[in-house]
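Page header: ASSEMBLY MODEL / two components / 594 residues total.
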Amino acid sequence: MPEAMTAPMGDGFEQAARDAVYRAMFTRRDVRSHFLPTPLEDEVLAQLLLAAHHAPSVGFMQPWNFIVIRDAARRAEVRDLFLAAREQELPAVVEERQALYRKLKLEGICESALNICITCDRERSKGSPLGRWHNPEMDLYSTVCAVQNFWLAARAEGVGVGWVSIIEPKALKNLLSIPEHVTPIAYLCVGRVSEFAPKPDLETHGWGRRLPLPDLIMSETFGGQGEAPLKSTASRLNGFVVERACAADQRVAPAVPQREPPNEASALSFNSRNFDDASASLASQAGSGTWPAMVLK
Amino acid sequence: MPEAMTAPMGDGFEQAARDAVYRAMFTRRDVRSHFLPTPLEDEVLAQLLLAAHHAPSVGFMQPWNFIVIRDAARRAEVRDLFLAAREQELPAVVEERQALYRKLKLEGICESALNICITCDRERSKGSPLGRWHNPEMDLYSTVCAVQNFWLAARAEGVGVGWVSIIEPKALKNLLSIPEHVTPIAYLCVGRVSEFAPKPDLETHGWGRRLPLPDLIMSETFGGQGEAPLKSTASRLNGFVVERACAADQRVAPAVPQREPPNEASALSFNSRNFDDASASLASQAGSGTWPAMVLK
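Prediction written out in full:
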């Protein structure tokens, strides 16, 4: 066998390609507010579906289907399901956050170019349940991997994706004629966008903050101490890696982010002082002075 | 506000960066057989964890933890759990596939550099269950997105990942002291590899084949016909997109794949005729004569 054919094939990508992969992950957003009316080309959509279809699946089961929903009337019905579900969820939120919850823009069902429902056919591997005897939910998890592939490929293509989970699943199944043995995993709003927000909307609006990664690392058992060098490396790398991966996105990189005033649909007031505080906090978590400008791009 | 600061930020990546993202997806493998004894640097592992930590999460809940397991004795115990579970799963497989099932190499627990258990803390967003009232499993799905980010970043870094799902979850929880309210989502074998196989092992060994993407696309409702142009585009793009994205991996690209004889651990005989047949079938599915050489790299 010629030498060239036995060369090791376990190498990583070159730096620029590695950066591109991280950049998709760090700049991906759950898009609700920035959809454009532009149609989405089949050429692009087909590539996103191809990416989804190359997700890992338990027992190579490939349990997914992709329902493309374009009809405006059907989408209006889905949006009604969302609105009803939001009212049902609201009382479960602690009282002091209910006003904020009400103001959050949580879907772009009607204004995105199209919707896609990614489903999981639970019977696709009947008779060959490799890897599912003890963990039957593995087919659902495989389908989620397909969703995440779709989402990352979309970011690379400049296509926004928003996952709507505030919806009653039985009502959705009924509306989309999804049979009993099939589970809808993700209802996605998909389309071109005016921008990818510099941070997750829920972080911007004060619903939550990114947790410090070192706090999430455990050693040997749950809660196990140890891995001090790894934690310290994770802290140190945080700003640097995000910075490098996102460098290509820095066509517009103000040190302090400038944004248009929020539109009515996402009507939370944008408090730049809080924004700065959050950035400073992140910078201190990351142990890197370069973090704020970077994560905000 | 200066012009530069209001420039549109909704663009996609340049071609090379888009290709890198697809390449990670198309060449990612569920690795069982090719782990090397090489240790994995904290610098690299920290980046993979950073990628995982930037996954989307419902309500920005970030429910994940990462248990790093290095201890050889503990890993041997996990492997014993796998071996027991495999014996339990076997009778569920249809009889004519049991011999094949027995021969499949399905984990690299002890021979990989380290193991990571990614868990989901189901109580992390107590009091603020945004997006989980109707779909409480969304936190589990968020954690799966973190797994997929980890996996893709690992591919880019030249690190193999294998997800072991043939394991009794209660026994695993017990072994890793995982509390009741935390769900182990993925038990991963992680480390440097000698190669990333040209195709999924289960495809190579005849357990399954990649389904034709157009068959998985539906229109408006489950089973809905339509989307003919999209399906046709998906067919046409298949070989082409995979080819372009994987071009950088073609340092060694025989038209018909050459592989070392399988080692004892992955002892299925490699039948190159079947392999060719599978390639031909894929090529006809893809409607592209260039597919076989490409998908096999």
